[in-house]
């Protein structure tokens, strides 16, 4: 009897193994495997797209966990010992979220982003999210060349170099050691996109499970997928609006303005978290910003939002600018409408 049971279980185990191997090799031509679970990298490679330059074959969860520490706290532990912080001034999550920021992964509309932040309790930050960054192919796009000049040349098509650029310059920190960079890349791999993260039709999803797709089908599916998420986030720098053109909150929506104020400005400024300037919902903060609204200096909201500040010797904390994609002029007007409201309370 025992022998029969043993044989039965051996057979069962073998058949499960065989099924899962088959599923793996032809991307799940078997019932129970949901095409939503396929990673984008896996699918796009199979459809004949160029492999990612930073592709990771052997994912290592331990490395990803260290990467997570580095991103959230700036250090991790090796053999029980705390490693040297990346920066004394910032952690990556001061400027980047690590989760989804848009309901539709192909959007980069600032209104969609604020809406999603509102519904999901996220801050509204100047940097793009790390969620899905593994699947992007271009970084520091468009106008960032103005800010970082030659540094961007090496970073634009390389995720690893972009991390280094940000660790050293955006974070006012230092160059990462090889193992630190590797850990961060494994963290990004863990946060990669899957088919279920995209809005694509059921028919197309089912197509993906088929073997022997023709070249035409492959190229069609590849287009469907690559247009369902951002391979790059655009970055348009705007000039400080001229005094005459500033709407000073007229026609703005103070409700949205309040959200932006709390999720952007207060995220860094409340209790002087990363700066000497404290901002809150009170009259004092409101009147400070309202009073300076007509200026062309850092104290004017119209200037600071579009230019930020630069880090300098002795004062490494700086404020990153908001591009048009990260805060539209309309949202800036909403923000000013809210500031006016609290200033005049
Ligand atoms: C003070 C703000 C700030 C900090 C701190 C910061 N970054 Fe950034 N980072 C930015 C901004 C602004 C950009 C501009 C491009 C974007 O994200 O859209 C950027 C871009 C990037 C990009 C390219 C993203 C893209 O899609 O173009 C990577 C990768 C990156 N940062 C990694 C990091 C890592 C890793 C850390 C922590 C070690 C870090 N950053 C810390 C502000 C910051
Ligand atoms: C990522 C963090 C961060 C965010 C987000 C942020 N700031 Fe700043 N801000 C700073 C830092 C750092 C400085 C530099 C001041 C310093 O040296 O401490 C600064 C400087 C300023 C200054 C100039 C202060 C001075 O006297 O020079 C103003 C005004 C200001 N921020 C307003 C805002 C407003 C309004 C928002 C929201 C739209 C905002 N900040 C969002 C970090 C941030």
Task: Describe the overall structure.
It contains 14 helices and two strands, in the order αααββααααααααααα. A two-stranded antiparallel ribbon has the order 1-2. It has three domains: 1-33; 38-235, no CATH class; 254-343, Cytochrome Bc1 Complex, Chain D, domain 2, CATH 1.10.760. The chain has helices at 2-25, 40-46, 61-73, 110-120, 144-148, 150-155, 159-170, 178-190, 202-207, 215-226, 254-269, 283-291, 301-307, 329-343, and strands spanning 77-78, 81-82. The protein is globular. Strand 1 (77-78) and strand 2 form a beta hairpin. The longest helix has 24 residues, at 2-25. It starts with a helix and ends with a helix. By secondary structure, the chain is mainly α. Helix content is 45%, strand content 1%.
Keywords for this entry:
mainly alpha; two-stranded antiparallel sheet; binds heme C; 345 residues
Write the layout of secondary structure elements.
Elements: H1 2-25, H2 40-46, H3 61-73, E1 77-78, E2 81-82, H4 110-120, H5 144-148, H6 150-155, H7 159-170, H8 178-190, H9 202-207, H10 215-226, H11 254-269, H12 283-291, H13 301-307, H14 329-343
Antiparallel strand pairs: 1-2
Helix pairs in contact: 3-8, 11-14, 12-14
Bound molecules: heme C (HEC) (2 copies).
């Amino acid at each position: 009897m025992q022998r029969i049971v043993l044989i039965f279980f051996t057979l069962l185990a073998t058949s499960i193994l065989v099924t899962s191997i088959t599923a793996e090799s032809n991307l799940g031509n078997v019932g129970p495997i949901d095409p939503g679970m396929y990673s984008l990298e896996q699918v796009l490679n199979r459809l004949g797209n160029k492999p990612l330059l930073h592709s990771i074959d052997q994912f290592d969860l331990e490395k990803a966990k260290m990467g997570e520490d580095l991103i959230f706290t700036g250090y991790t532990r090796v053999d029980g010992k705390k490693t040297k912080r990346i920066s004394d001034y910032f952690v990556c999550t001061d400027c980047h979220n690590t989760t989804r920021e848009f309901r539709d992964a192909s959007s980069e509309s600032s209104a969609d982003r604020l809406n999603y932040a509102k519904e999901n309790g996220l801050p509204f930050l100047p940097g793009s999210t790390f969620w899905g960054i593994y699947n992007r192919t271009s970084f520091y796009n468009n106008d960032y060349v103005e800010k970082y000049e030659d540094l961007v040349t090496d970073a634009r098509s390389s995720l690893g170099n972009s991390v280094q650029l940000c660790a050293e310059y955006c974070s006012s920190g230092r160059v990462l050691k090889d193992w630190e960079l590797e850990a961060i890349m494994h963290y990004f791999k863990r946060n990669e996109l899957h088919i279920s993260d995209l809005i694509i039709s059921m028919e197309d999803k089912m197509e993906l499970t088929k073997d022997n797709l023709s070249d035409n089908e492959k190229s069609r599916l590849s287009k469907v997928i690559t247009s369902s998420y951002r391979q790059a986030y655009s970055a348009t720098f705007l000039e400080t609006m001229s005094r005459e053109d500033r709407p000073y909150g007229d026609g703005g929506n103070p409700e949205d303005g309040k959200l932006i104020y709390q999720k952007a400005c207060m995220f860094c400024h409340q209790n002087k978290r990363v700066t000497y300037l404290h901002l809150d919902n009170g009259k004092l903060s409101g009147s400070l910003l309202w009073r300076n609204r007509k200026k062309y200096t850092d104290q004017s909201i119209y200037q600071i939002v579009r230019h930020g500040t630069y880090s300098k010797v002795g004062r490494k904390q700086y404020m990153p600018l908001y591009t048009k994609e990260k805060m539209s002029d309309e949202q800036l007007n909403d923000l000013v409408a809210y500031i006016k409201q609290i200033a005049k309370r």
